[in-house]
Specification:
The protein folds into 2 domains: 144 residues; 130 residues, Jelly Rolls, CATH 2.60.120. By secondary structure, the protein is mainly β. Helix content is 5%, strand content 39%. A hairpin with a 7-residue loop joins strand 19 and strand 20. The strands form 5 sheets. It has a 6-stranded antiparallel beta sheet. The chain has a 6-stranded mixed beta sheet with strand order 5-7-9-13-14-11. Strands 16, 17, 19, 20 and 22 form a 5-stranded antiparallel beta sheet that branches. It starts with 6 loop residues before the first strand and ends with a strand. The radius of gyration is 25 Å and the shape is rod-shaped.
Length: 312
């Protein structure tokens, strides 16, 4: 059975939402091949998955995969369970043209190896089936290729879920495949200043955020941090910031406050706010606020920027 699909690439999703660099592949269809040759493999789950995880009980040849979703990604992966080889034939005459693998040569996928395709056929004679984005026969080289494209250092997380082992990645709701996976959400930009204490906190910007949406790619172990650039005009009057939930379930409430800073130039302060932004959190309007814990009516606290950093 295919698990829910999630696919995110670098780009802009909504106001104040900046995906610096992220790739998440999700939605796994588990299949078992018992040997011989499989022509035009067909399953309703193909169109709602990104990973085709193949278990082999004998060496198997695959000539093509049926699909009805144009310009979609499909990662075909030989699960590291047995020692058998999955061979993908190049433009095999045993497969319909729109289903075959548009590769120069046959590819043998050993246990733990996979290859990423895009299904983007054109009409008429140019119909070309599954076009290989690259012959990445392991996740490390796949990630390295996306890393080079996105201009960021890469990492590979192999979670120990299900029957996954050190040589296997399971795609789906329990796993994430990332490329420098960080989401930066801008809350407000300044500078903005205040002379007041905690009784009259100065707000700056804010966003509406629903952490229950699956396309954020968060999980129960995601780390979310609130950051602010904060300074004061006098070291004897330190500044402080917080993240405040203005409306929504459980509001109004202070999510968390940073420590104080006595710096007279912009200082990076932060506090962990993970619980509020994981899948079990509540939707609402989240606002950064800052102030002088001790005010004299003359000295000022200034906030130049505030944002959330999400590590799915």
């Amino acid at each position: 059975m295919a698990s829910p699909l999630f696919l995110g690439l670098a780009g802009t999703r909504a106001p104040s939402f900046d995906v610096q660099h992220a790739l998440t592949l999700g939605g796994q269809l588990d299949v078992t091949f018992t040997g011989g040759q499989v022509d035009d493999f067909s399953d309703p789950g193909v169109d709602v998955c990104t990973g085709l995880a193949v278990t082999l009980t004998a060496d198997t040849v695959l000539t093509g995969v049926e699909s009805g979703s144009a310009r979609r990604l499909l990662y075909i992966f030989n699960r590291a369970i047995n020692t058998n080889t999955l061979t993908l034939l190049a433009r095999s005459g045993s497969s319909f043209t729109q289903n075959w693998f548009s590769i120069a040569d046959d590819v043998d996928l050993e246990p733990g190896e996979g290859i990423l395709f895009m299904w983007a056929p054109t009409s008429g004679a140019g119909n070309d089936g599954y076009r290989a984005i690259g012959l990445y026969k392991d996740f490390a080289s796949l990630i390295a290729a996306f890393s080079a494209t996105l201009g960021t250092a890469a990492f590979l997380d192999v979670p120990a879920v299900g029957n996954a082992s050190a040589g296997e990645v399971v795609l789906g709701s329990d796993a994430r495949l990332g490329v420098g996976n960080h989401l930066i959400i801008q809350l407000g930009t300044g500078p903005r200043s205040t002379k007041f204490d905690a009784s009259t906190k100065r707000r700056m910007g804010g966003i509406y955020f629903d952490p229950t949406l699956a396309d954020w790619g968060t999980s129960g172990s995601s780390t979310i941090t609130f950051y602010a650039l904060l300074e004061t005009t006098h070291a004897s009057f330190p500044a402080q910031a917080e993240l405040y939930q203005q409306d929504g379930t459980g509001s109004p409430t202070i999510i968390a406050a940073t420590g104080t800073t006595a710096s007279t130039t912009a200082d990076l302060v932060s506090v962990d706010v993970s619980a509020a932004f994981r899948l079990t959190g509540n939707a609402g309007l989240f606002v950064p606020r800052f102030w002088l814990p001790t005010a004299d009516g003359t000295q000022q606290a200034t906030c130049s920027a505030a944002w959330l950093d999400i590590e799915p």
